[in-house]
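Internal ticket - ligand job 380, 9MR:
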Amino acid sequence: MPYRRKFLTRAGYTTLSALLTMGFLQKDKQREDQSTNSIAANNPIKNVNSPLRQLAAAKGKRYGTAIDGDFLRKEKDYADLIARECSIATPNGELKWAGTEPEPGKFTFESADAIANFCQKHNMTMHGHTLFWHLSKPDWVPYPPTLKMLERHVNGVMGHYRKSPVLKSWDIANEIIADTPDGTDNRYGLRRGVKPELIRDLFLIAAEVDRNKKFCLNDFGIEGATWKSDHYLKMVEYLKNNGVKLDWAGLQSHLWFSKNYPFDEKGFSSVLKRLKDLEVKPVITELDIIIDTPFPDSIEKLDKMIADSYKRFLELCFAGGVDTVITWGITDRHTWIRYPQWMPQKYKDNPEFQKFLRPLPFDENLKPKLARKAIAQAFQ
Ligand code: 9MR
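stdout (structure tokens):
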């Protein structure tokens, strides 16, 4: 699968003036990063329109987004918005295997470095995504890769960023738990063919290359009491019991809510509690929220439901020890879920449903939505 999206044609272009008229004037975004604590103590920020990175920093937290390098280069308003709002970013595809080692042993970092440079310029950190995944890998890489391939890949990619001033954490492995029980052949629920020892060795190799970064095990479907979260936690436990450095539990949080199936708050709190016991920090790595059918009768109501969901979810996260929240994109203009390749079938079959895919804090014109306000309030 190619690591870059093939469907880039529908990007709209708006001017920064739209943002400026919303009161989103550029402020000194470095302020909060320089003295997080003194801001919190002496200058509590009350205004929800303050940059999210400032509101987060005032509470010792961080807000960020996935960044698409192509859009970053081509759309100044998109780049300006990220610089204003975010203190951390994850490259969307630029650090995936297909992006960094397209041919055996031949590494390329041009696209990922462009994002790293942007982060440095704007005083943001970068989260490395990802060294091991079953998707976005070149065809010559089997799944799972051989240990030899892994060693070369991890050395090449992590080695390149060992001294990076911005890259401070890695998704060492991504989505290793099977989607459903019939996708596994082992008691940890790992995707068929993946042995727990291989994942252990992957983490051990990574620690040999650069143990100064935070190491993350990233997955989706962990935000409740499910077969997946159960097996994910088993795997975290296995890694911790086998001498592996594991700092972060990456809870992707691609969330779907509906009147028909409410958020499993109790289940999610118990996941957070279990992670606390295991001494692994929960990090929200890919948040976006979809309200499923039956739809409300207006977009305003939908946006309100999405905002309420953000607020409730984040409040639980913060109560459970989360201090980093990364949304998977910042604007509905570029949400992955609207691309045909990823769009759920029922939205493809009913084009009139597609306007209800509004999962991110800013709309297509980069205007702040109620979801943005909810994130701001949750940080406050
Ligand atoms: O949003 C990403 C999309 O643009 C890419 O085509 C795709 C394949 O590389 O990956 C998407 O991001 C995924 C992330 O890497 C892992 N978790 C699920 C994300 C959404 O599919």
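Auto-summary: The mean pLDDT is 90. The beta strands are 62-67, 88-91, 125-129, 167-174, 214-219, 248-251, 254-257, 281-291, 324-327.
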